[in-house]
Every structure is written in C-alpha cells, then in structure tokens.
Amino acid sequence: MPYQACALLLHIVVSLVVYRAFARILEDRQAAFVGAFFFALHPINFYTTYDNGFSADTTVALFYVLSAWCFFTRRFALAAVLGTLALFSKEAAVTLPLMLLAAVFVFPEFRRGWRGWVKRWAPIGAVWLAYLALYAPALSWAGGRVTAAARPDYALSGLELPRGVLRFLLWSFQISSGKSTENWYSRPALLWLSAAIGLLLALFALIALAKGNLGVRAGLLWFFIAALPMAALAKKPPHHLYLPLIGLALVVGELFAYLGQRLRRPAVVILAGAVCLGHAWLSYVNVENDSRLSWVGGSALTGKNAVLFLKDHAPQINGRSTIYVVNETPDNLRFEYVKGDLFRFSTGLSGLGVHIVQRPGQVPSPLIQDALVAAYNDKCKCLFDSTGLFAGRPPRQAAASRRPASETAPPR
Amino acid sequence: MSGPQNSGFLRFAVALLAVVAFASWSAGAGNRNEPGGKITVDGSGIIRWEADAQASVYVTADGGPEVLMAEAARGEERPDWPYAGHVYRFVLRNTRDGRLLHSVTAEKDAYGRLVVTRETLWQRWGLPLAAILLAAGFLAAGLWNWRRLDLYLVTLIAAPVAVFSVSFGNYFYGDSMSQLLVRPGSMWGVLRSFMSVGEWYRPFSHGLLPYLLFP
Description:
The complex is a heterodimer.
Chain A: H1 2-26, H2 29-40, H3 45-48, H4 55-72, H5 76-89, H6 96-106, H7 114-135, E1 139-142, E2 145-148, E3 151-157, H8 161-172, H9 188-210, H10 214-231, H11 242-262, H12 265-293, H13 295-313, E4 323-327, E5 343-347, E6 352-356, H14 366-383
Parallel strand pairs in A: 4-6
Antiparallel strand pairs in A: 1-2, 2-3, 5-6
Chain B: H1 3-27, E1 37-41, E2 47-51, E3 55-61, E4 67-71, E5 74-77, E6 87-94, E7 100-108, E8 114-116, H2 121-143, H3 151-164, H4 174-181, H5 187-195, H6 203-213
Antiparallel strand pairs in B: 1-2, 2-5, 3-4, 3-6, 6-7, 7-8
Helix pairs in contact in B: 1-2, 1-3, 5-6
C-alpha cells in the first residue's frame, strides 16, 4: 500500500505541475484543466501508479517539465539542476536540450537576445555533454542499432520509430495496440468513437499549425521529441508514453482554449464535461480490466493465490511476511510477463519469493502442484524461521516442469 | 476564475466523480443480490444456486452469449472447463419468464479453481457515495464562495485517486521487487549509485528516492 500510494502521489504532483504549466501557456484555466485531465486520467497511468517500479517515469516527467518551465522563465541555473535530476531519473531526459532548442524556435519571444543565451546554455550543455560521455561506454552500435550490453532486448533503432509513434498515438486515444493494452475496452462502436476523436484532434492540429498556433506547435513538438528514444525501442511498454503524452494533452487543452474563444461559455463547459467524463469512464473500465487481466493483473492474481496456497501449506507464513512475485525466464534474469498460471518457489533476499513461470494456456497439473509443495516444504525447513521470515541465503532455484493444459473446451 | 464559473465547474467536477463512482458500482452490479434466488461460487469452485421457483443457470464467457448449464430450483455443480484468463458470469434466471434472479462473476485461479471476481470498495459503496457527493456538491455550490478554492486542482487530485487506487490491493511484480531489493541501505550506498554510471543509470529514481521513501 505505501508503495502504491507514493507512486500515485508522484503522478498527482506531475499532473498538478502539468496543469499549472498549461494554465500559463494557454491562459485559460478550464482549457488547461481539460488538457491536464486528459493526461492525469489516461489508462497508461495504471502502470505508472501501480507501485514503485515506474517511479522513473513520474520523476523524469516532473523534473523535465519543471526544467523546461525554469528555462523559459529565465532561471537557467535551476533549469540545469532540474534537468540533471531528470537525467538521474531516466535516460529519456536526454532529449531535454533538443526540446528546449525546438521551443526557442517555436516561441518568437525567446529568440530575442539569443547571443546572451549562448552563455546561459552553458550549464545545461555541460551537464549533457558530461552525461553522454559517461554513458556512451555502456552502449554499443551494431547493425544500425544502439544496444546496452545488459539489455540487448531493448535495442534502439530508427526503423522502429514509425511503428512506435503510431502505437503511441493509438494508445493516446485509448485504442488497444499490442501487449499490455490487449485488455482495453474494445467494442467496435467505442473504437470508432476513439478513432474519430483522434482524427478530429489531428484535423484541428493541422489547421491550427497552418494558422501558426504556438500551443499546438509546442504540444506536437513535445510529443514527437519526447517520444524519440522510447518509440525507437524494440520493446514498447505503455508507460513509455507518459512523458510524450503531456504534449498531446497540451494540444487537447489548446483545442478547448480555441473553442472557449469562439463558443458560448455553457456550450464549452458541456463539451468539456462530456469529453472528460467519457475519458474518465473509459479509463476506469480499462484500468479495471488491466488490474485483473493484464500481465500485472495476472501476476497479482497468481500472487494472491500463491499467498493463499502458502498459508495452507506453511502456517509460519503470517500476515506480515512479504510475498514477492517474480516472473523469471530460465536463461537469465530478464523479467517477462505473460498470462498463465505455472509458478515455482524460490527465495528473495528479505522474504519469501514466489517465482512465477507463466505460460499461456497452461495450468499446473496435480502432479506439478505436488512437486511444488514438496519443493517448497523442502526449502521451508531450512530457510524460514518460526516467524516465517527469511533466515538464510537463497539456494539455486529448483527447475519447474511444464505440461500442456488438458482442459475441455469452454462453454462457447 | 470568477465565482459563477467556478460554481458551474464544481457541478461538473462533482458529476465527474459521481459518474466514475457509478461506473465502478455498475461494473460490480453482477455480484449483488436480486430478489427471488441466489447463486454463489464457494472457495473450492463449486457453484450453488437456490431459487423460489424452477430456475435455469446460464454461463457466459467474456461477455459472450449465454449457454444453458443447468435447470433446477436448487443445486450445485463443479465445472471443470473454465480456462484461466477468462471471466465467466453465471446467471440465474426464472425458467418460466427468463427473469434475471441473480448472477455472479468468477474467474479461474492458478489452481484451476473458480473464484469470485473481487468487488472493490468503489463498487460496493460507489452509488451511495456518488449520490452524497452530488447532493453535497450542488448544495455547496450555492452556499460557498469558491473563489478561494481551485476546484480544478481538487478534481485533478481526487479523480486519479478514484481511478488508479484499484492497484492498492494488488501485489508487487518483478521490476518493483528487484528495485526494492537493490535499493541503497545507506547514504553511502546512495552516493555509490550516483557514481556507478552504466546502463540503467537512474540513481535518483532507483537510488535516492526509494532510500528516502522506503528506508
């Protein structure tokens, strides 16, 4: 609970900062609210608020936005400090200088006195150069891809960019695409509605761009520049959309600021209310589905059952024991999450660990369950003290056997 | 922001919370009692039902069409066919007129047992809470000078809590656990995390922050 609460608190702080920034840019608090609400209640935040695991996304967004804010309010030293904190939070902050540079060309007032700005770019430029120099040795370049030695599955490639950007755009309008969003609500009528809203916003953005609207220009630049490193990754989990989504939220806010200037106030309030309510409702449904049926939900459900199972078989596991749920592939320590039910027991460093090996469509047979119980009891004798807490070093994990499911067809 | 505008938006903000609450309540409506009969799934995956008259038990998978499972005023059954990863809804209907008597939503757990899909706090109390919020909001909008309170901020705090607190009852998963396991145990450890440059160099979010928040 405290882990989830802290993650949620961080997200709320980011949402409030985004709202304040939008209010300053749009000079219309209702439009700023609609934009910030679009960001705050987006279902990708199910992942960023799930627990401490995604704090990198929320903290990088917080410092990234604050750094940009300070830069444009001419507090350059503070901007450099906050930008450094963003870099220390997640590598995605590497795009910040590019973002600031692009924004300088978007907003005419920042172009004045650019000679003086060269000196002011020095702190942030020095930090980024030092960061790149330090980080570069950890990366390798092969076959047109940039790869970190420890994570070859997270290679960066320009060829991935179009697919990544398209996926980010679909996710932005709550349209399911690929892993981790497969359980989003997907009734055809709603899909068409989401697509229509997305296209309408795109149309508005194009017209506004043609007319030289600065807010839309800034929002789209933010989306594409912030998305650059994440969209180019071979793997594209939804939480990578967190930082780029702020840009699209600004475009949404700009749309309502535009409407606010042209329509009567009650009409805008009703429209804003309808959009926010629809967005919130759909998000709630998608989050509910994610919590039960996604890889997180699958892990949570299996973890919950593991706790019940362990309580049955090991009375010394009490309510204060920490149960960690890990899904670990057998060849390395890379974590993978797919639906399934098979798990094996092992130990963590500060509590009992239930290491899950999930395979789609497979369930443990009684034979495997018996083997698990035997393996667990065998470990339990030497590894857990009378309070159920860890009291020794973990042994190597026992291999878990697998067997295809042998179930009859479901009733449909 | 002017007072009248803010009052108007207060109604909107309160209505927003009310709709979210109502949506969550309605999502759990299938697990609540209706008069005339009751169907339950116990801890060992046995489905039991009891009705005042002749009743039919239907099952639907993932919102698909209803399939007849049994016909009797009362009985029990332990199906062996459910797949993991699917949500099944067992519906008890009056055989004569097809009237819905009760339903229960369940899914399969890691041991092949059917377990009732959980009902969140919002689902249980969402409707009354929505009604109270609506009434209080509309009443307060007419009585209070809202100039001092930015209701946009209030909504931006309350709405994410309402929607995303669903994960409060869930368990950790791998990345979170690994981060907690390797988090620094001292300030020296925090400093070392800043000095250890390499891939996944995130000393603030993975070092200092967990050290401060979860020492």
